Fold this protein.
Amino acid sequence: MAKKSAKDCFIGFDLGGTKMMAVVYDGTFNVLGRRKRKTKGAEGVESGLTRVSRTIEEALEDADISADQITGIGVGCPGPLDLDKGIMIDTPNLGWKNVKLAQRLKDEFGCPAVIANDVDAGVYGEYRFGAAKKSRCVVGVFPGTGIGGGCVYEGRLIRGKVGSCFEVGHMQVVPDGPLCGCGKRGCLEAVASRLAISSACVAAAYRGDAPHLRAAVGTDISKIRSGTIASCVQAGDNTVERIIRNAAGWIGIGVANIVNLICPDTIVLGGGLVEALPGLFLEEVEKSARERVMPAYADTFKVAVAELGDDSTAMGAAGWAQHTLQGND
Amino acid sequence: MAKKSAKDCFIGFDLGGTKMMAVVYDGTFNVLGRRKRKTKGAEGVESGLTRVSRTIEEALEDADISADQITGIGVGCPGPLDLDKGIMIDTPNLGWKNVKLAQRLKDEFGCPAVIANDVDAGVYGEYRFGAAKKSRCVVGVFPGTGIGGGCVYEGRLIRGKVGSCFEVGHMQVVPDGPLCGCGKRGCLEAVASRLAISSACVAAAYRGDAPHLRAAVGTDISKIRSGTIASCVQAGDNTVERIIRNAAGWIGIGVANIVNLICPDTIVLGGGLVEALPGLFLEEVEKSARERVMPAYADTFKVAVAELGDDSTAMGAAGWAQHTLQGND
């Protein structure tokens, strides 16, 4: 791995709510080194930024290169963000406010840094390096605690006024439907996120309709992992399978609405639960979406499962830094 | 108006189902001349294309300029289109198929020609010259027989694989809702187009709930014009007003979904009925949309009524030709 002679390297950084990760790439995006640690946002901004810097330094050590071999740093982080100024405006799950992250990294490592929304970075990663390579237009839909989304149109991340957009999870799909975390009703993520699925699963376990799930985790929603759900489906918890098919059908409605609007070539589904049950999600999302798109659009798009897994945000952020700084794609 | 010395002129052409119109613009988009005639699509492609050419020639005469003073021609026409090749693929309401319109105009007038979807051209017109000037991102929503839509993002019309997109009217807003003309159920245009409004109005007239409307047009939907509906609201047909407010509320749901996705600065509402009752539509669409967008997006957009009226498609098509050929915007 050691490349003392490497030039034009990029750092991709994934700043998550619980963990952070730095990955060092060479100019053709081979991994030269990496480092991961816990985020510990509650210890405050200054402590957190020190942890970010140490993680980058140790990834550079792992890659055996020095800071002056880096052309740029890309960071994927939770929003809302001021993309032009490189500022994390207010990050509730870290407790950080008004953090001038890009400037800080620039001062520290002597190279330009850009920030992007974590989901956007992941979608960009799939566009550059993963399931949607060379797509004219790709939309990512990532069900997790909510449902994140992003769009790369003709090589560029679609963005809002100052920050990220493509809030797929807050498309209203059920008029006067279940209450959503955002305070509105009937949003897609209120009926189809991994959290909505988990909550339906524990209700089924409580009723006695999901014996494997009940045996595995009882009825405590905080104990459910994507792997738990997948293994209970495989073990024969039919109700759990139906819950997922139902949720995936709603996601298909969201996908159909997106296809009718922006007509992407590729829809990438991602996140831990999708990657644990790729066949089930692909089948139901595609079926539901194809039933609902305009007839003329029926053959214009494909649905695919994300390929980069846990590296998508870091790799996409590094690729986005390269695109932003050098115009590559 | 006569400008024998004018250079760098553009022709904007609106090729509609019932009428066609050519407008001659100088390089700063002052109108130099115009001509309108019936389309008569049923008389066949060759006859129709001859009518197109004569209409352009007569608009040039009206402007008192010759074909060699034209830099380009932009045509807004009904889809589906192959935008790159300038071909009208299949236009049901004209009965035309595989018409190489751009090449034909180029051969005839000796200057490049581009085609655009008529609604896209109208939205682009509002972006360049009307209610959405200089918007980073504008979405047009035009309720008519269906509900047309278009999007200009950072100066460019968002497009699908080969043709237009932004089929706002086919967003599913009511699961298992009323049947739509596209064969699906619960599409926005099935509950909120001018046609859906008219159909609810004749039912109200039949029930005796819309006395002014009944007196004006009886119960025949084909007799209802946008002006009829507007004057009945003003005369006190409360049920007609409620029908419109209800439809506008649905449009607001569609607008909220669009804002949550693509976060436009400006939503332009257009079409005859909106322009006949601008206050009513603005109020209900805005209220409904602001109730449903992500809290962070509440102040990022404005809703406006189209300003170019019947000229929007021709003017937008001419502006798009200038943008495409010269990079202006």
